[in-house]
Amino acid sequence: MTWEVLNVIGTLAFAISGAIIAMEEDYDLLGVLILGLATAFGGGIIRNVLIDVPMSTLWQQDMLIKVTVLVIVIVFIIPDGWIHWTRGWLNFFDAVGLSTFAIQGALYAYSAGHSLTAIIMAAVMTGTGGGIVRDVLAGRKPTVLRYDIYAAWAIIAGICIGTGFVQQAWELYVLCVVLITLRLFSARYRWKLPHRYLQTL
């Protein structure tokens, strides 16, 4: 039950972030809905394609999809001040979403007997795929690949589960808390991986 609650929180947080970015780009209501849903469920769809999970599993979340649509509509109609207040909590909810989605993606691939590489990819794409889809649809450079440490935490989830280092339920919860904490610290203190900018001649 706790795991399902975290999954719902992460899904709704991703949906809200997609809706806010869509409004920043001056999208209409339909565009806001599409971008919000793409952010919330895009990572899971990409994961399903990568590890050959039936796409019908998405429609088994019918109630969550309906709740997500409702939340996006609420975000669309609430006053600007409330949106700015909501934005302050997005980092926390986003960290929850990243952690739970990455772990779920890794577990899906692990239970299907895939290789360590596939498990890591499933973790990364489930945790970050929605954000990448969101930024691409909004005409932005994907922030998860550029500004801060984000996908790296999903890689850690994939490695821990793929190598069998984390297996028990309580170990998964500990891993989830650790990843959330690392994500919040990396956002708060602006941790960055080494990067190099190459100027064109």
Notes on the protein architecture:
This protein has 201 residues and is an all-alpha fold. The chain has one domain (2-188). Helices cover 76% and strands 0% of the residues. The protein contains eight helices and no strands. It has helices spanning 2-24, 29-51, 56-59, 62-77, 80-111, 116-137, 151-162, 169-188. It starts with a helix and ends in a 13-residue tail after the last helix. The model has no long low-confidence stretch (mean pLDDT 87).
How would you spell out the order of helices and strands?
A: HHHHHHHH
Low-confidence stretches: none
User: Strand count, sense and closure of the main sheet?
Assistant: none
**β-strand amount:** under 5%
**Domains counted in the coordinates: how many?**
1
C-alpha-based Rg, rounded: 17 Å
Q: For the terminal residues, how far apart are their CA atoms? A: 56 Å
Number of strands: 0
Question: What's the rounded overall pLDDT mean?
Answer: 87
Structural class: mainly alpha
* Secondary structure tally, helices: 8
Percent helix: over 70%
Tertiary shape: globular
In short:
With 201 residues, this protein is mostly helical. It has helices at residues 2-24, 29-51, 56-59, 62-77, 80-111, 116-137, 151-162, 169-188.
SSE arrangement:
Elements: H1 2-24, H2 29-51, H3 56-59, H4 62-77, H5 80-111, H6 116-137, H7 151-162, H8 169-188
Helix pairs in contact: 1-2, 1-4, 1-5, 2-4, 2-5, 2-6, 5-6, 5-7, 5-8, 6-7, 7-8
Q: Which properties best describe this structure?
A:
201 residues, mainly alpha, 8 helices, globular
